[in-house]
Amino acid sequence: MAKRKKLEVFGVKITIPAMIEGGKASAGPPLGPALGPMGVNVNQVIAAINQKTKDFEGLTVPVKVIIDKDTKGFEIEVGSPPVSALIKKEIGAKSGAKTKDEKVGDLPLAKAIAIANSKKDSSLAKDTKAAVKQILGTCVSMGVTCEGKDPREIIKEINEGKQDGAFKA
């Protein structure tokens, strides 16, 4: 009977995704238990994540830890926080509305434009106006007004060209 050769695979990379509060990654769940069996220095990975996410303090951000199984080296990719998290940070709310009639805050149009610009790399919107309308749609579902109005009114004004000045600033 012929002996079987052990199959060796080179260049395998493992990706571990997680949602982490900016600057507050720890060796506990969800990262610690996932990183431990990979043979990487968990403390180095945690320190690198905290360094890369420190600007997102108070926000939950998507993080990918990419580990090379051969070299035990790692890379950290930090995504952009969800739109809802950015809106909550801007209005100072802990959560969105609990009922459809509840209003939890007001987002200035300039801040909606800033959020849209920060998300442009991950948005499928064709231009800034379309991206802002997506942000305002999220405001509708969160119970957030824009310029003291229902966000749908601002969307209508954008469609009619009444808010064009805000996009030139």
Topology:
Elements: E1 13-21, H1 31-35, H2 42-53, E2 60-68, E3 74-78, H3 83-91, E4 105-107, H4 109-118, H5 128-142, E5 144-146, H6 151-160, H7 164-168
Parallel strand pairs: 4-5
Antiparallel strand pairs: 1-2, 2-3
Helix pairs in contact: 4-5, 5-6
Would you give an account of this structure?
The structure is a single chain. It contains 7 helices and 5 strands. It is α+β, with helices and mostly antiparallel strands and 169 residues long. The protein has 2 domains: 13-78, Ribosomal protein L11, N-terminal domain; 83-168, Orthogonal Bundle (Arc Repressor Mutant, subunit A). β2 (60-68) and β3 (74-78) form a beta hairpin. α4 (109-118) crosses α5 (128-142) and α5 (128-142) packs antiparallel against α6 (151-160). The longest helix is centred in the C-terminal third of the chain and has 15 residues, at 128-142.
- Calculate the terminal CA-CA distance, rounded to whole Å: 78 Å
What's the number of extended β-strand segments?
Answer: 5
What's the number of domains?
2
Low-pLDDT segments? 1-9
Specify the helix fraction band: 25-40%
| CATH structural class of the largest domain | Mainly Alpha
| Approximate shape | elongated
Mean pLDDT: 88
What order do the helices and strands follow?
EHHEEHEHHEHH
CATH topology category name of the largest domain? Arc Repressor Mutant, subunit A
Write out the strand line-up for the largest beta sheet, numbering strands in chain order.
1-2-3
Biggest sheet character: 3 strands, antiparallel
Write a concise keyword list for the protein shown above:
169 residues; alpha+beta; Ribosomal protein L11, N-terminal domain; Arc Repressor Mutant, subunit A; 2 domains; three-stranded antiparallel β-sheet; two-stranded parallel sheet; 5 strands; 39% helix; 17% strand; disordered N terminus
